Amino acid sequence: MLNASTPNGQVMLLDGITALAGSVRVEGSDQLHQFAESLGNAVDARDPTTYNHSWEVAEVARMLARALGLSPEQAETVHVAGHLHDIGKIGMPDEILKKPGRLTDEEWRLMRHHPEVGTDIVRPIEAFCSRGGVADMILCHHERFDGKGYPLGLMGEDIPLGARIIAVADTLSALLQDRPYRSGTCFEAAMAEIRRCAGTQFDPVVVIALESISKEAVEFFTDKLDRWVFGRKPAVAVCLKT
């Protein structure tokens, strides 16, 4: 049996996922979404505290894309990229993914490579490789609006819009979830942190879009009570409802 917690297991898992991606011939939107969701679930399954994180990012990112006036097709592309944004973590050692404290410089260096690893995984899929498409969104979802992000140090509108959207959705979901190094926060506190980072970490236009869908986002998270069993505390539900 493949053990993803060992170095050999991580390499085998990563190679297997890359080979699977290379064999995919997507014939329609439904199949593409199913493939993306399955890979996103595979990443989230590595750590119970990130249960459904990729799914949450995908759903919120699609809400944001629609709020920003993207076409249905563009919104669906962002949705797919949301499922796959962290696929590069699939081969990351457990001691890094689940570490309760601060990462060492070397561990952080390895972690910062996950956007590039994820991009390499999906590049064999032709449908993902258009300019500003899924592969570019995966590559750039940790870029910052002020140019201080990674891996390319892109700034402002040089960052693909889909990546700017996913960055906000990713942070919202992460702040609401418990992580090994901190407890999850409530929706209003998460929103306050995202507002604080508008113009530095995040595109201010995307943050405004999040404000415009905040009621829809609250309903989305509070409707998922069953998912808290796997990583989100019931206390967050109370906070979200206030």
Automatic annotation (TrEMBL):
Q: Does the keyword Transferase apply?
A: yes
One Pfam entry for this protein is HD_5
Where in this chain does the record put each HD-GYP domain? 28-226
**Top-level lineage group:** Bacteria
**MF terms (GO), sorted A to Z:** transferase activity
Bilayer-crossing residues are none
Gene3D superfamilies, per this entry?
Answer: Hypothetical protein af1432 (1.10.3210.10)
The question of whether Transferase is a record keyword is answered with yes
UniProtKB keywords? Transferase
**SUPFAM superfamilies from the UniProt entry:** HD-domain/PDEase-like
State the NCBIfam families in the record.
HDIG
Q: What is this protein called?
A: Putative nucleotidyltransferase with HDIG domain
